# Entry
Amino acid sequence: DVKVTQSSRYLVKRTGEKVFLECVQDMDHENMFWYRQDPGLGLRLIYFSYDVKMKEKGDIPEGYSVSREKKERFSLILESASTNQTSMYLCASSLVDEQYFGPGTRLTVT
Amino acid sequence: AQKVTQAQTEISVVEKEDVTLDCVYETRDTTYYLFWYKQPPSGELVFLIRRNSFDEQNEISGRYSWNFQKSTSSFNFTITASQVVDSAVYFCALSGDSGAGSYQLTFGKGTKLSVIP
# Structure
């Protein structure tokens, strides 16, 4: 079974803090994705990566950056957290287009 | 640009009723794939089905069935004899064959299904 894990299920941070969300997959997938999910807005793609050290902007990259130093790990970075980044963050990986998701991290920025 | 519309925001049914979740999509690609995912209250999206644009046969898996109609750009999902465990948010998604971006999925906004005992 494909396993995608995220470092935290719940996280509370203060405005202005630098926040790291980690995602690890164990199926040697090339592609990895970060989404945020908000009520009424569905899933919105923040960043994705097709290979190590490669990244592409999604639909809402502002305020975020990513890092992919190893194939299995894809990190989402909030350089200076703001209250409007309070959300559920979902990581996914895929070999082709069928994506497998992690359990999500519910981030609250106060 | 691709688009997926799930017009039903929330649906409530009584246990054992049948329920259909609607999904309408827009794409200019000739080859594309359609997906359904389930997100139970625990939060993790679970893959249910993948269907390519050349295969319009309906699919049945236990109490779940999917009706793909290219003529109306729809990929509807029916749950027969619903159960409380079916309560979840269901997402329809679409991918295309547009080169480097083809592995991205475009998601609908989801339909929240509540099955009342």
